[in-house]
Design brief:
single chain, alpha/beta, 7-stranded mixed sheet, 4-stranded antiparallel sheet, 12 helices
Length: 365
């Protein structure tokens, strides 16, 4: 069913990996181009339409993006490298955070975002994809033709793989300290250090935050490729800046990225949350408290979240217990990802081509 709204994956469609190994108890590990990864949930096509968009944007506001004036010169977008992504009937371009106006000194500022737009039959939704710890957007496309991005495109969605501050695992930083998880993830989203976050995040730059990099990327794409439809996902404000239309977004992520995508869905009323081998946040008493379904969620995970993982995932062993805490409908949680010879159990949801039909179904509205 096409509803003419934007889909954003943190998850919007998007996935991740990590540089510091996490223990099985803390999660946040995995395989995204050879490193550990993280993910987030999804919404049900049969759920009442209001349930996916109810609640309003209750999270922290995005940092102000740069001037989006149409007079600002923007070079044409760079085509995706040959062979990285094979998607017929779509355009595929890359742009780095630095090229969109983010600080050049920020983490992963020179690793490109991947942006794919259908050339016809667009759904009006954007899938925001967030990679796992230590990974980058290119690593999410382990198979050029059967990956998260092409699964989103097959359903008519735009797809944006966001390059963000993802080099260390949240689980490795927080361990059994419950409050650290929400504070550290909020720091990564906002680019502003939060009380209770791991001290290694104290030097975060505003333009390293997911909010700023997403807004800057969409603004840049809207100006560099005016026919690509990217401007539909921006909300004009009183200045030349714009913010994301969260109600038109599907947030998705793998491993660490799935946890960030889930938090975006908690803070903002998105169309769907898609958690791939994630979330993985656990404290001494079990799932991190921020993941427990209560009245604070802008997107109800019981109605709008999907989980997909391998049952035997050793790097995110608590994913099923976390899906229980989120109250994800049993019909929307899949603990049966096929583990293939070319990937680990943690990377299987995004790396094993046998799972592509399931991936595509998660983005079907």
């Amino acid at each position: 069913m096409r509803l003419g709204r934007v889909v954003v994956s943190v998850g919007v469609v998007l996935v991740c990996a990590c540089g510091t190994a996490a223990s099985p108890s803390t999660g946040d590990g995995g395989a995204d181009g050879g490193v550990s990864v993280d993910a987030g949930p999804l919404v049900d096509a049969a759920a009442p339409e209001a349930s996916a968009d109810a609640g309003g944007d209750t999270g922290p506001p995005p940092p102000p993006p740069v001037d989006a004036s149409p007079d600002a010169p923007v070079p044409p977008p760079t085509p995706c490298p040959a062979g990285v992504i094979v998607a017929s009937g779509a355009t595929c371009v890359t742009v780095t955070p630095e090229e969109t106006g983010a600080a050049a000194t920020g983490e992963n500022a020179t690793f490109p975002h991947y942006a794919l737009a259908p050339q016809a039959g667009a759904s009006g939704f954007l899938v925001l994809s967030l990679n796992g710890s230590g990974g980058h957007p290119a690593g999410v496309a382990k198979n050029p033709a059967r990956n998260v991005y092409t699964a989103a495109l097959a359903e008519g969605h735009h797809a944006l793989g966001l390059s963000y501050r993802s080099n260390v695992t949240i689980g490795g930083l927080c361990g059994d300290t419950d409050a650290c998880y929400l504070a550290s993830r909020t720091t990564v989203l906002t680019g502003v250090f939060q009380v209770g976050a791991d001290e290694t995040l104290r030097g975060v730059l505003p333009s390293e935050g997911v909010y700023a990099r997403l807004a800057l990327a969409l603004q840049h794409l809207a100006r560099a490729d005016p026919g690509g439809g990217w401007g539909a996902f921006l909300q004009p404000v009183a200045t030349p800046e714009a913010t994301v239309r969260w109600g038109q977004g599907i947030v998705s992520g793998h491993s660490q990225g799935g946890g960030h995508a889930t938090l975006l869905g908690k803070l903002h009323a998105v169309r769907r949350i898609v958690a791939l081998a994630s979330p993985c946040d656990t404290a001494a008493a079990g799932p991190a408290s921020w993941l427990v379904r209560d009245g604070s969620w802008a997107t109800d995970p019981a109605l709008a979240a999907f989980g997909f993982a391998a049952e035997s995932d050793p790097l995110c062993p608590a994913h099923a217990a976390i899906w229980d805490a989120m109250a994800i409908d049993p019909a929307r949680r899949f603990d049966d990802a096929v583990v293939c010879a070319s990937d680990s159990a943690h990377g299987a949801p995004i790396g094993c081509t046998e799972n592509f039909p399931r991936l595509r179904s998660l983005f079907h509205l």
